[in-house]
Amino acid sequence: MTTLTRTAQPKDEGRKLKYFVRSDMGMSYHQFASLKVRGALTVNGAPARANHILRDGDVVCAALPEDAPALAVEPEFEPVSIVYEDGDLLIVDKPAPLSCQRSPRQSLPTLENRLAAYFADPAFVFRPLNRLDKGTSGLMAVAKHAHSYQLFQKLLHTDRFVREYLAVVEGRVEGAFSIDAPIAKVGEASVKRTVDLQNGKPSVTHVRAEGCFGEYSLVRLRLETGRTHQIRVHLSHIGHPVAGDFLYGHEDARLPGRFALHSARIMIDAPERRIDLASPLPPELQMLIDAR
User: Which of 7, 55, 128, 149 has an alpha carbon within 20 to 30 A of 162's alpha carbon?
Assistant: First the structure.
């Protein structure tokens, strides 16, 4: 069973427990009610009532219910680059090409299978907060239980959950600008997306040029929305496809199975923690700009 623990701060002196649990611990009314009924809420190790008055330094624990049984995930015993871990969250540096998750078209290997081996838990459930394409490398955040998934999902498209990417793109890109162009599926059976002004979903990508290197430019991108293939579609739309992007640009034999897109930074400003992590360009992408 997962236990969520928070420590009352000086600002919480005199607050009622029910308000602390619902705001600082992110519980809904129904979740809080369930904790009370199950006797799963304690302060300093002792059961506590909803109107219990908190003091600075009190330790509040909520025993969360077990997840519903999930389909077993076959473990794959391959290395996983873990760059951050606490009781609620895991951040990994995913290589490319590697799929995130199992699908009808994709079995082993996936990051999901590797994390199943890492946790060695038959009840493991994969809860990615930001998904990366098979051909994209870099930082990915994964919630460790259902409650933390709910909490971080609320932050995902705000300035408290920042995702920045680096891309090597074709052509010369300068300055900073935003691409505001709605994205839609090309067809029901297709994985491809396109800019569609009439039927697309709102999609915004912020772009800042980092430098020009011969036939390529290095750009830093920040997502305001999170559509499938958003960065790849937007960069192709403006005439600067990601280098090696076999779906929206041109395949590059130097990048087998991948393209030049990398999740370079994740910043999460959440209760009791602020995480700001960076991942450098992998060697095969650095090679593209070094070979100018």
Answer: 7
